[in-house]
Amino acid sequence: MLFPQQIRSQFPILGREVASRPMVYFDNAATSQRPQCVLDMQDDLCRRHNANIHRAVHTLSYEATDFYEKGRIAAQRFVNAASPQEIVLTAGTTSAINMVAQSMVRGGFLKEGDGILLTEAEHHSNIVPWQMACQMCGAHLEVVPVRAGAASANDGAVDMEAYREALRRGVRMVAITHVSNILGAVNPVREMVAEAHAQGIPVLVDGAQGIGHRRVDVQQLDCDFYAFSGHKIYAPTGIGVLYGKREWLEKLPPVMGGGDMVAKVTFEKTTYADIPLKFEAGTANYVAAACLAPALEFASSLAGDRQAALHEKELMAAMDAALGSVSGIFVAAAAATDRIPLYTFTIDGVHPLDAATLLDKMGFEVRSGHMCAEPIVSRIGGGSMLRASLMPYNTVEEVEAFGAALQRVVKMLRQ
Amino acid sequence: MKSIEDIQSEIAEEFAVYDEWLDKYEYLIDLGRELPLAPEGDKTDANLIEGCQSRVWLTCTRDADGRLHFAADSDAIITKGLISLLVRVFDSQMPRDILDADLHFIDDIGLKENLSPTRAGGLAAMIKRIRDYAAANLEG
After folding, report:
1. Which ipTM score applies to this complex?
2. Which of A182, A219, A278, B5 is spaced 20 to 30 A from A60 at the CA atom?
C-alpha cells in the first residue's frame, strides 16, 4: 500500500462520517487520533492487566507496573534522555509546566524581582502557570515579541535581539514553546537554550506541538526541561511527559504529596522517593502511560521514513496552494522558513466561527477562536482565527477538497 | 397577535423544506443578513452577551401595553441568523408569556447543538438574558 494509505488504514476513526460526508480531521494540534496498536494496548491493559502499579507483589500489579515503566522507557528513548529517571510521567503538558513552575518557587529558584521569559506566542498553558508563580513569589514576566502579523516579516520568528536583551534584564527562568500552536513556526530552541545557559538561566521547552512533528533530542537541545502530552502524538489523553535534567529533578522539591512518592512517612517527618517517583504522587494513569510505548514506536517508525517526510512536504505544498487561492486570506507566519503542517488564518469579511460551523457541515473538523493563545491571536487575528492542523495520516486529496470547501464557505459568508 | 407557540411552529415549517445541513445554514445566513441591526449606539458593554467566539448585543424595550421588543446583532452571521429567530419568537410578547414559553423550535429544526451552554456562539446566554428581561418586567 502506498503512503499515506498504509498508515491511514491503522486509524479506525478516519473511516467515519460527519454530516453524512467523509470526515476530514484537521484538528490534530488539539489532539491526534489513535492507531489500532494504541487502541489494542488500551484494551489489553483494561481487560487483562488492570491493577494498581508499584506497590503490590501480586502478578497483575507486577504486569501493570511493567507496562507503565515500559511507557517511561519509550518516552526516554523517544526524546533521547540520558536515563529513565529523567522522565517524570504527568497528566499532560499543562500539568508538567505547572509542576515545574510551582516547584521552582517552592525550591527558592524563583524569587521577588526575578524575570520569567516567555515568547509572545505561548499557549495559555505556558503563560498562566508562570503568572501563578509570579503571584506566589513576586517575580514578573518578560515577554519577547515574535515576527508575526500583516505589518511584519510574518515569518513567525522570535525577535532574537529582544530575547538577548531580556536575558540580561534579571531573567531567572526561560519558558518557550518549541512550536507555537498558532504560528506553526519551529523556534530555534537549541540556539535559545545556549544563549540562556551562557547567562546561567535554565530553560523549559513546551513541546506540545513540537513532539509530533520534529525529532526531539533533549541532550542535543540541552534544555533543562521538555514537556509534552501523549495525546498530541497518537497516545491517549491523561498522560504527559516531563523530561528534566537529573540535577534539576534532584534539587527541585515535589509539589504534590501522597501515594507512592515517599520513602518513609511518620507524623514528624516524611522523606521522599528518588526521582522520578517523588514527582508522581497518587495513582498514575497507567493505562495511558502504557500506551506511550506503541504510540511512540508508531511515531518513530514515521520519523525515520523518507516517504513520510516527502508526504509532509506534499501536504504543506498542497495547503499553501489551497490557502493561497482564497482571496483576502491572512495566514499567520506564512513566511516561516521551518514550519509544521499547522495553519492559522483569517479571511476578510468572514467570521471564523461561521466558517468553522459550515466547514463542519461539509465534513471538515477545524478549530476556530483563540485556541488557548489569546495574546497572540488578539494581536494578529483580532481575537479569533481558523486553524487547520495536519498529521501524516491526512492526504493531499483532503487538502485539495478543503481548498474547494473554503472557497464555497467564503462565497456563502462574505458580507 | 401570534403566540410564541404559533411562531415556533411557523419556523419549524419553514425549515422542514431543507434536508441538507448546508441548505439550513444557507437559510440562516440569509436571515442573518436581513436582521434589523441594533443601532451602533446600542452596541454597548451593557448590552453585550459575551460568547466564547462571537459577540451578541441585545436590547429590550417595553411598550405602553407592557409588551417587550427586542433588537439584536452579532459579529458572526450564523449567530445573527439564530438570534433573528429568537427575536422573531419573543418580540412583542408579554413578559409572563416569555417566561412560561417552552422553547423547542431550535431542537425541532435540528440546530440544538447551538444551544449548548459551552457552544461558542453564546445563544444559551442570550436566551437567559431575554428571560431576565422578562422577569424584570413582570407586572406587579
Report:
1. 0.89
2. A278
